[in-house]
Each structure stands twice: as structure tokens, then as C-alpha cells.
Amino acid sequence: MTTLFSPLKLGELALPNRLVLAPMTRSRALEGNVPNALAAQYYVQRASAGLLITEATQVSPQGVGYIRTPGIHSKEQIEGWRAVTKAVHAAGGRIFLQLWHVGRISHPDFHGGALPVAPSAVLPDGEVFTMNGKTKMVTPCALETSELPGIVESFRLGAANAKEAGFDGVEIHGSNGYLLDQFLRDGTNKRTDAYGGSVENRARLPLEVTEAVISVWGASRVGYRIVPHFSGFGATESDPATTFGYLTEKLSALRIGYLHVTEALSGPGAPAAGVTRLSPVLRRKFEGTYVVNGAYDKDSAEAALARNDADLVAFGVPFLANPDLPARYRTGATLNAPDFGTFFQGEEKGYVDYPSLA
């Protein structure tokens, strides 16, 4: 029977277990959005995971929407990440970089006064933290059709830079109301060109980005993340079953290494009452490795694997607070309690100081 501790082949990568470190923003990057030297320690501490996925990482300056989040578009950023991958590999781990562009979830403070970009000029609901504190988001500037090849190229260059930095692969951030998700959803995409209207058109940019990233890495080293039931920032979708079903089928046809689907079983991130869970449906549409995420614990993760609802399970908060989570789950050891106040601040505190069993 498949368990969390069963090995798995992900393309050419041999994963020793089915636990994945979920991508989690930690807001510790240094000036120039360069990964903090502490990041190497942070990821090494968690290298016993079958696979590590980094925090979301901007593919260009235009993709920034949060303070102190790392990038993968400058020489200094590449070198910062190279120190991380070298340390993780020395510890026996495997690590993918998550490629990110926030789109409209940003503010002119990050862009020298210029508006954030998006598929359409639709005002997001909410606030962002900038260098000047908590600030209301603004109505973004709609990207011209002629600008979209540049977006695709920024993801391709980010993928190439990740390869230069020594990663084992990349995950495309296509979820949580960020740029690629904004193009996919009919609530945020009001375009009338070839990138708007029908689901085929709305999925065009995400698929073009995926093909560009595959051109760098090969399909088996590329993952794609979606959150079908996400509704933050006013990111709505009238028919998620059709929209995410179509995208999943196309990603499957591209034979990417994995699809990473976040859908909580209950609570925040779960479908609303009376709404059908999409993850089991998408599982049947995707022929590659299927990763689930969404407030799983050991028991619910083992159950998902036993039902064949997933091949891998990604853990966020439990892995943040327990760097040796696989060992704790294997032995039944007590888990550390997370310190929510240090998730996005604190330097070493709440970042690299959680105790391990050793």
C-alpha cells in the first residue's frame, strides 16, 4: 500500500518519500530581492522532504507585489539561490523554484509610480504591504496584446536563471489570483483579443508560459500550481469546473512533471457548501504526478494516498514549524506549534530556530 514514506519517481528524480514542502512566502529577502543567506539553512533543515518547492519568486521587477520577496532575474539573485541549491544538494535534497508574477496584486510603490499590470483594468479587493506600510491596491493597467510575448519571455528567462542557479526543476505559479490565474478567470479577464473571452483564449497565456518553460527544462522538470476554489482579491470564476478542467487537460497533454492542486478538505480554501470538490475530478484528467495541498495532516494525507487521490502531498504550516516533519510523522512525535507572528518577519526567529527532534 502507498504511504507517505513510499518512494516515487518524478521523471528522472527519485523521491525518497511522498512529502513535499509547499511554497511559502517568508519575506526574508535582502536588498535587491536577493535570497537571504539564512534561506540556505531554512531549506537544508527541510531537505528530508521528497521534494522542496521554494517560496514564490519573481521572474521580473514588474512581478513584485510584496516586500522582501526574492527574485530570479538578476545576477545577484541567481548567486543567492545558487548557495541555496548547493547546500540542499549537499544535504541530499531535491528543490524546485516557484516562478511568480503577481500581476495586479501589487502597488505603484513597487514600480516607481507605474501601475501594476493585469489582463484587464479590474480593481482588486484588498491591501498589500509596501515599504510605506499597509496600502490599498489600485486599478491596474491592462496589458497590451503586444506586451504578452514579453511576459512569456520573462518566465522563460526566469526558468533559465533557475537552471543556472542549480535547481532541479521549476513550478509555475498559476494560482491565488496572481497574473496567470488572472488571465484564466473570467472575473478578472475582460479582454476581447485572442487572450480573452472563451476558456481557450483565457488559458492561452498560461499555456504559452508553460511551453516556454518546458523549452528550458523539458516537461518532466516542470510543475504547475492551481487553486480552483480561490476567491481572494475578488478573483472570481463563473465555471471553475470547465475552466480548470480545460487547463488541466492541456497541461496533461504537455506531459508536465506534476500538477499541484490546493483544495482544503474543510475550512478556508475548501469549496463552498454544495459545491463539488474539483480536485478528484482534475485527478482523473491529469495523467502525470498529482500533488495535493490544503491543510493536510498525517492521517488525511495517508488517506488521500490510499484512495489514489494523489501521488504526493504538500505541507505548508506543519513543515514551516517542523523542519524534520517526515521523521516526526514516521515516529508519531509531537509537532512544534507554529508562531504565526513570525511567518513574514523575524529574521532568524520563526524561520530557522524551530527545534528538530535531534
Summarize the structure in words.
The protein has 358 residues and is of the alpha/beta class. The chain contains eleven helices and 14 strands. It has helices spanning 38-45, 75-90, 148-164, 179-184, 199-202, 204-217, 240-253, 279-285, 298-306, 317-321, 325-331; strands at 8-10, 13-15, 19-21, 51-58, 95-100, 117-118, 127-130, 133-136, 141-142, 169-173, 222-226, 258-262, 289-293, 312-315. The strands form four sheets. It has an eight-stranded parallel beta barrel with strand order 3-4-5-10-11-12-13-14, surrounded by five helices. Strands 1-2 form a two-stranded antiparallel sheet. Helix content is 30%, strand content 16%. The model has no long low-confidence stretch (mean pLDDT 96). The protein is globular and about 55 Å long.
Quick structural summary:
The chain is 30% helix and 16% strand. By secondary structure, it is α/β, with parallel strands linked by helices.
Report the end-to-end length measured between terminal Cα atoms: 29 Å
* Average pLDDT metric: 96
Largest sheet: 8 strands, parallel, barrel
Helix percentage range: 25-40%
Determine the number of helices (DSSP H or I, runs of at least 4 residues): 11
Query: Judging from the principal axes of the Cα atoms, what is the shape?
Result: globular
Q: What is the helix/strand order?
A: EEEHEHEEEEEHEHHHEHEHEHEHH
Uncertain residue segments: none
